[in-house]
Amino acid sequence: MRNPFKAAVPALALLTALTACGEPTPGGTTSAPGTSTPAATSTTGTTKPATGTTKPATGTTKPAAGTAKAACAVGDLEVTIAAQGTGEKDEKGMVVVTNTGAKNCTVKGWMTIALHNAADEAVDVPTEKVNEPGPADTVEIKAGGSAFAGIKWTQCGKADASCAVGNTIRWSLDGSGKGAVAELEGFPAAEKSGITMKALKVGTFQPSNQGVTAW
């Protein structure tokens, strides 16, 4: 008589083997028993840089409007030159430039100083601009305030052919010898035509009178 248990054993073994291999997954793949397929992780947008964070600020170096002061006009200034009365051959003078206008203004570098005679003609004097008491710079003169400069000239005898003789001094800011008349203090009276110059040195504009003639 045929034993029915012998046929059942191979069928049971085949069923066990298929179960151990796991069920087929869609697409033909097979997942191991007891494991799960991890869910796909989206990385979309995780590395996108923040927008606008590195944009440089604009206009940070632009100077404020209206901060620059206008250059002084001759008509807004008055100039006084006071001789120091050194009693030496080389005489010194302090130049005081006063802003009589309603607004602050600026001067830069040197002014022009020109000796004139009784006929109001410019007299030729060898002139040198010097960086005394310091380098040339822009100086602001407030309304009602003053800037300063020093001058030094070599006096001479009128009989000397190289001696320039005059009675007034004119000044300008544009290099012109025909400028405005300076008020003089400590100089010979105009009617004497007693201002003599063999050579002239002009110092720089300064915001203070400190040291402007100490050279």
UniProtKB/TrEMBL annotation:
Presence of keyword Signal: yes
Domain named DUF4232: residues: 72-206
Keywords, in A-Z order: Signal
Endpoints of the signal sequence: 1-22
UniProt-annotated stretches for the region Disordered: 24-65
Name of the protein described by the UniProt record: Uncharacterized protein DUF4232
